[in-house]
Design brief:
Number of domains: 3
Strand order of the largest sheet: 1-2-3
Largest sheet: 3 strands, antiparallel
Strand content: 5-15%
Number of helices: 8
Structural class: mainly alpha
Shape: elongated
Radius of gyration: 28 Å
Order of helices and strands: EEEHHHHHHHH
Oligomer: single chain
Distance between the termini: 77 Å
Number of strands: 3
């Protein structure tokens, strides 16, 4: 357990794995030369939350590749609460599009985004999926007018999400994008 060793007229005391040169009181150590305590390892949830935070920040700065890396790791840890996991999937879908309109993405990139959005039921996720599908098929070419039913559905989306989508998926000819743009700008009646 304990012990001591004399080194050049200085006694080093060992108590368990601790080392001290002078012990003035058996209950109190007055001088610790060096103490190495490793910080506790973060839990999977803490690591996932950190990757979510970094992925969100990267996406908002337009660093899509970095966002994909962090958000993929976040989701792979599988440690988030369901609402946070849904948010991470939505952000990863946005990041996978790489800041481009869906018609300029590869089929694999668009499919990856749609696969991430598939299980989500939040209005902003459904609108992003609709935007990807509409722009990939050029369905917006049939009519320039935004249908009232689409505007009504856009009202269900939080303005911050509408703004996030319109900034990262530039497809202004799309009717879905126009409805989001109106909602983000506060002009949707």
């Amino acid at each position: 357990m304990g012990g001591s060793r004399d080194r050049k007229n200085s006694t080093t005391h060992y108590i368990g794995r601790q080392e001290a040169h002078t012990i003035n009181n058996a209950d109190t150590v007055n001088h610790i030369r060096e103490l190495h305590l490793a910080p506790p390892e973060p839990t999977p949830r803490e690591r996932a939350e950190e990757h979510l935070r970094l992925g969100d920040a990267s996406l908002r700065q337009g660093l899509h590749h970095s966002a994909v890396t962090h958000l993929t790791e976040c989701i792979s840890l599988g440690a988030l609460a369901p609402s946070a996991a849904a948010h991470a999937r939505f952000l990863l879908a946005l990041a996978r599009l790489g800041g481009r309109r869906p018609s300029l993405c590869t089929t694999a990139e668009a499919a990856a985004a749609l696969d991430l959005l598939g299980p989500l039921h939040e209005p902003h996720a459904r609108f992003l999926a609709a935007l990807v599908q509409e722009d990939r098929t050029n369905a917006w070419m049939g009519s320039a007018a935004v249908p009232d039913s689409l505007r009504t559905k856009a009202r269900q989306i939080d303005r911050s999400y509408a703004d996030l989508i319109r900034r990262h998926v530039p497809a202004p000819q799309s009717r879905v994008w126009q409805a989001l743009d109106e909602r983000a700008g506060g002009t949707t009646p």
